[in-house]
Amino acid sequence: MVGPPIRAAFRDDKPSRAAEAFAANLGGSVAELRRIDTPKGVYVAGTKHEPGRRALELLPAALAAIAKAIPFRRAMRCFLHPEPVPIPSPQGYVEALRHAHVLAVPHERAELMKQRLVEAAKRAGGSWEALSRAAKAGDTSAVLALRRAMRAATRNAEERR
């Protein structure tokens, strides 16, 4: 580790408090410090020795940090289940989320959304086919009407739970 500049670490060839504190931080003595040349000038450096630890102690925190650093295009949020969902095992992931009203399998989620769209279109006096044609034709009023019906259906579903 690189410490303070040499001019701050030693005065009249005697170690300063900065050198003593740096050596103590490394767990060694001032005699173990060395001088190194850096682009910023001459500095004091030392080696910190840490005892090894078992991988089982280190991996959980390391893997959590790695997982949090993975960029996702969008994070999945579930407003119907605001609490954390315990996942008992990798094999139980999909079922645990399904139990919390979260569909992690894309085709299941798409099928449910289509089913809800069809139901909302019927309640609004239309059909899935008519909605599809309106969306393809760019008829935003039909799409917006369906969106309002979908929001109402979602609110009703939330109230029923």
- Rounded radius of gyration (Å): 31 Å
Largest sheet: 3 strands, antiparallel
Contiguous uncertain segments of 5+ residues: none
Helix and strand sequence:
EHEEHEEHHHHH
Structural commentary:
The chain is mostly helical. The chain folds into 3 domains: 2-45, no CATH class; 55-99, no CATH class; 106-160, no CATH class. Helix content is 53%, strand content 11%. It contains 7 helices and 5 strands. It has helices at 6-9, 17-26, 55-69, 93-99, 106-123, 128-137, 140-160; strands at 2-5, 10-11, 14-15, 34-38, 41-45. The strands form 2 sheets. The protein has a 3-stranded antiparallel beta sheet with strand order 1-5-4. Strand 2 (10-11) and strand 3 (14-15) form a beta hairpin. The longest helix has 21 residues, at 140-160. The protein is elongated. The model has no long low-confidence stretch (mean pLDDT 84).
SSE topology:
Elements: E1 2-5, H1 6-9, E2 10-11, E3 14-15, H2 17-26, E4 34-38, E5 41-45, H3 55-69, H4 93-99, H5 106-123, H6 128-137, H7 140-160
Antiparallel strand pairs: 1-5, 2-3, 4-5
Helix pairs in contact: 5-7
